[in-house]
Write a structure and sequence with these properties.
The protein has four helices and nine strands; from the N terminus they run ααβββββββαββα. By secondary structure, it is α+β, with helices and mostly antiparallel strands. The chain has two domains: 89 residues, no CATH class; 76 residues, no CATH class. α2 crosses α3 and α3 packs antiparallel against α4. The chain is elongated. The model has no long low-confidence stretch (mean pLDDT 82).
Length: 186
């Protein structure tokens, strides 16, 4: 099931002018746009994922922060009893590394040969993410009212200018979301 970062009632509290017609679709679309922009699910969930062994000391888990790891299994090696995790960035090290990543055992190379069962994510939706959904819902609503998103407007001899190629998630919302977005760690 897709994560919901803000409900219609939460959006209504921040945006009293939320239209009633098509409200549920608008809220669903705004949540989906934010989720797509983040490129990951951010809420706490149990996960079982398979990874391709990189032949390096680090294995980067898809979700973070990591709350707990239930099982680490490598094809042909079975369950692994010795591993270390950096929960904030979701990096998993195989074996005892004696406090230094240089001493960690390398993950064996292979295709989808590592399986990790773990819990990761945030316990609650952070306020900046909820606000980003509100801003995105407003952008989507405004885009539906016109043939495009308005970038300027005049009053005398009324005119307006529409922008081309804008994203559903406005720049202000992207600024709120950037710390939660999936991307390169280094």
């Amino acid at each position: 099931m897709a994560e919901i970062y803000a409900t219609a009632d939460q959006i209504l509290a921040s945006w009293p002018g939320l239209p009633t017609a098509g409200r549920d679709d608008l809220v669903e679309d705004a949540n989906a746009a934010v989720r797509d922009w983040l490129r990951r699910d951010i809420l706490l969930a149990d996960r079982v994922e398979r990874y391709t062994g990189p032949g390096l000391p680090e294995l980067f888990l898809r979700a973070r922060p990591v709350v707990s790891i239930d099982r680490v299994s490598i094809d042909d090696w079975g369950d692994q009893a010795s591993w270390t995790v950096d929960p904030a960035v979701g990096v998993l090290y195989l074996g005892g590394r004696r406090g230094d990543p240089r001493f960690a055992t390398r993950w064996p190379r292979g295709v989808q040969n590592v399986e990790v069962a773990y819990s990761a994510g945030l316990a609650a939706v952070p306020p900046p993410v909820r606000r980003a959904v509100v801003l995105t819902a407003q952008r989507l609503y405004e885009a539906g009212e016109k043939t495009g998103y308005m970038t300027s407007e005049s009053i005398g001899d009324y005119s307006y200018t529409l922008a081309d190629g804008l994203h559903a998630v406005p720049d202000v919302a992207q600024g709120l979301l950037v710390r939660y977005q999936e991307g390169p760690l280094f």
